[in-house]
Amino acid sequence: MSANWQFVAFPLVLPWRREFWSLPLFFPDLQVGVLWQWPPGLPYQGRPLPPDAAAGGKELRHYAPGELKQWQAYEEYTSSREELEDIVRALRGEPAEPQAPGGGPWQDENAYNLAWQLEVMEADQEANLSRVDQEQDMLTQVLTPDAWEEPSGLGSTPEVEVLDPGTARLRYLLWRREMDALLGPESVPLLLGRTSQTIFTSLRREAGGGAAPRVRFRLPGCRTEDEYQAAKQAATTGGWQGEFHHRLETCLLAAQPGEDLETSAQELNRWIAAELPLLWPGLPAWTWDLEIWAGEPEIKEGGETLLAWGGLGKAVVPG
Fold it and tell me: Domain residues of the chain, as ranges?
């Protein structure tokens, strides 16, 4: 893969999930924003939170998950100060419009800190929901009927997609602002948060985009440090990471309008199915899905070619 190609995590704050032990195997140089409670054995380093964000967004914590639409909370918090358009303008680094006498200019640092508080609160909700997911999975295993029993009326949770264009744009602009030094022509967002796919989908829809072509790959993975270390040693011995990166880059270059993404994806899937298992330490006990979303260059915000962790977390997301 070319020396300038960068994978940049979205969002900025990622609560720990044991599934992330797989990330360094496939993306050893992943650029991340802020991490906390991650095991020290992973190679990624984060950055400290701004002081107001580190406080945990106390001004917004009385909004409970399930009833919260973050943009509504954000609007209520800021309505007595300035219009929301001014906040977004400040995050984009654009000059504020002239204010009415006595109104005062919106302070860019205030917008910055408040946006970070929303990011931290979202990550906190995601961490809580991840624990709920684990408890539900355990309960499902206990309640799964034996082969000779009739299935019960318990069904899977219906998929719910919560689109909040205001919050989506706010969090995207914050990510662009913080990661600007890393983002370039050969950089690709890697969507790893519970709501990250919803955010980019919302941005594309708001801009009039359609359902961009996407392809999916099923990759072997690990969920413990011991499994990670074994797979890391096998990767060093087998040297498969360079081949994976080369084939992935071919797919990303093909994920442009007029290019043949499907053919490139078929080649990568063939390699994953036929060759990668021979270089993995034993039979992987777990797999995960990686998606490529084709770019939409006409869409200014959120139209990038991107990678997404397919099916990360449940489809029911906080607003």
Answer: 6-310
